[in-house]
Predict the structure.
Amino acid sequence: MSKRSASNGGEDDGQLRTHFTQFFNVAVIMDDWGEGSVLLSPGSIRRALLKRTSRLPKFRFDSSKHILQISMEWKQQEAEYQTISSSDIAKQVGLSPGRVRQILRLSNLHPAVQAQTLDLIAQHGKSVVPERLLRHVQRLPLATQFYEFTRLLGTN
């Protein structure tokens, strides 16, 4: 059985000769081979990441806003730029990474708690729902958050 090889121009000579002088590592960007998938070398990936990081959104800590509003804004920006970390956000806003994660966790509150908090803030100002109360409620299971929130606020 004769084999062809790239080293002999594809001619039949009965031998398979292969020579590997270089190795290339490649990575697939995207989850599937559908439309828009790209096959890149590690150097290209690094350049693409550097380009992407140069266009990061500007995170701001606006003290005139309620902490939940800030959390929801940051979470939305973080979702758009999945490569950004809490450390990156912390450098931009001048807070510790732990404090940034603490703020971002508030966006995981039950949607009804978020909606009611935003309504109360709009009606009565940002001091009506303290951050400490939201942090306490956020630690609870999602199913009990709204009940505990209304109980602590004294609203039904």
